[in-house]
Please model this.
Amino acid sequence: MKEFNEYVKSIDTYIMFRIKQEAARLAPQLEAKGRAPIALAMGAPVASPPKYVYDTLIESLNIPQIHTYSSPKGESWLLDEIAKRMKKRFGVELDAQKEIFSLIGSKEGLANFVRALINPTTDEKAKEIILVPDPGYASYSQMIKTCGGLSYGYKLNKENNYMPDMNSVWQEMKLSGYDETKVKALIINYPSNPLGAMCTKDYLKHIVDFCREKQIWIISDAAYCDMYFDEIDKPHSVLEIEGAKDVAVEFFSFSKPYSMTGFRLGWICGNADAVGAFGRLKSTIDTGIFKVIQKAGAEILNSRDGEDYIKNANTGFKRKQMIIINGFRELGWNIKNEDIPKATFYIWLPIPPRYKTSEEFTNDLLTKSGIVVVPGNGFGNNGEGYFRLSAVADDKQLQEVIDRMKKDGFYF
Ligand SMILES: Cc1ncc(COP(=O)(O)O)c(C=O)c1O
Model:
């Protein structure tokens, strides 16, 4: 038969699905030795969504014509609630019709935005470039690849406080042989997956100034903006920065703050031309989201129940984080207080020095102890030597992780 295109041939199945499959394959033998898999790989909260979400879902099913096609943009009552939320949470003013568009989850939105932006080619030299964080969300580079583009990973590390100076990044990129005229966008992701790192408002200003000067788009992935542990140091939106709307779009998700991962709901907002171009592409691809799900999203967004849910969830994530941090300290990891993530449920740690690669460590942890984590190199070359753990399981299971590691000799 005829072959599939070069882009698709060049990628593997998404790393999280591969890890899940491998854990399922090993499950019978792990269960037999009392080491049933404990899933700490996926970045997905396990708690149920707010009750209010379910109540709204059920009630909405009775609305006449709720079963019919929506539009890819989203129903106007959802877009209005999103505009209200952006104003309330960040002080950002948006035109609900021109500057907001609904998404079937932010992953879909990011992938289709990249698709709208990149001119595809298989000619390596002609490929357009998007700068991505390294380590960063594993999907970015794959999305770019499947659209016939090239990603350039900029390094996030402790030395640059996870906020690298973009002028230095640009110089390094040019020195590595990349053509600066091919760069179309910069992806930023704060709070960060996999690092849990936040950035300052000053840093966002630096990003906006830099991208305005270079005339490249900012793609800000704010999936974790409501998952933070300090009420007086909340993550910011890039759109709070003056002039950001000239160059920026930002992606938001209902998945993490409300545990609505399976609902598949999010939004893009920001520059009207970019949202418009993205919308034209989307109008040929999908016909929007089941209106019942949009209703649930619209209702929770500015509700008291939503606020309370986020607060409680974050208290829980902080508690889980500290179970893991204290446990790993007992296991010999040297984790300084200032290195404990201030946001997200991710914990990013070095592998013990006796292991040569991240994968060697994570495979050993899985096959011996049934603990499922992600090797750091899955998030980019700069992630080698580390692993990511999502502190999402229940407290007892997290303690079980530490107990198993002690019993099975996983000391640093
Ligand atoms: C950084 C980041 N962006 C986007 C997503 C996609 O989330 P969703 O498609 O559920 O909105 C994820 C999911 O893990 C993520 O970690």
About this structure: The domain at 62-303 is CATH 3.40.640.10 (Aspartate Aminotransferase; domain 2). Residues 304-330 form the longest helix (27 residues). The CA atoms of residues 59 and 292 lie 9 Å apart.
